Amino acid sequence: MKVTATGPSRSFSTVLDIGKRADTNMVTSGEMRIAVTGPATTASGRAVKAFLVRTAGMPDADYEGDIAATRQTVDDEMRTA
Hints:
alpha+beta; 17% strand
């Protein structure tokens, strides 16, 4: 279904109902496509657990440096709060 950008703002519940039916909405402004809405993807608990097991204890090589760099951007007053 193709709708203009003003349509969803006027009738958002209709947009959600269309998504529930496993249909997709293309939102346009003029001739430009600005958004696509549709049913949410799902992941089973089994898939999430497999991902967590696969990546447990494996931060990337830059993780420690990223944390240190981030901490440098926070002033002392924020750190002690």
